[in-house]
Amino acid sequence: QVQLVESGGGLVQPGGSLRLSCAASGILFRIYVMGWYRQAPGKERELVATIANGDSTNYADSVKGRFTISRDNTKNTVYLQMNSLRSEDTAVYYCNARRIGVLRAYWGQGTQVTVSS
User: Fold this and answer.
1) Do residues 92 and 38 touch, judged by C-beta distance below 8 A?
2) Strands 18-25 and 3-7
3) Cα–Cα distance between 74 and 107 in angstroms, integer?
4) If 0-12 CB within 10 Å is exposed, 13-18 middle and 19+ buried, where does residue 93 land?
5) Are strands 111-115 and 10-12 parallel, antiparallel or unpaired?
6) pLDDT score for 71
7) Collapsed DSSP state (helix, strand, coil) of residue 34
8) What pLDDT was estimated at residue 53?
9) Which of 1, 16, 51, 64 lies in the 20 to 30 Å Cα band around 81?
10) SS3 content of the chain, % helix, strand, coil (to 5)
């Protein structure tokens, strides 16, 4: 059974930082492209960042220079370091796992990030 479990969300002031974690089980983690997506109220889910099994990364323009995605294949965990947070970063953040060329993807349950003073 595949499980993606996110943690690290919470309430933070503008300009602050948070680090999200996503622990995966039930998959051969090292061959999966891991990603973070987010969904704000009333908006569609959007890509935040992805990291491939070769550690190549991709970021949404809105988070470039502020967020960093990384992975630890020994711990089956992907991270999202979020700095200089803004109110518009407020959303539920979801972890995603997919294999290139395979239609099916896996999702975590989401973790809430709220940026507010």
Assistant:
1) yes
2) antiparallel
3) 20
4) buried
5) parallel
6) 97
7) strand
8) 83
9) 1
10) 5, 50, 45
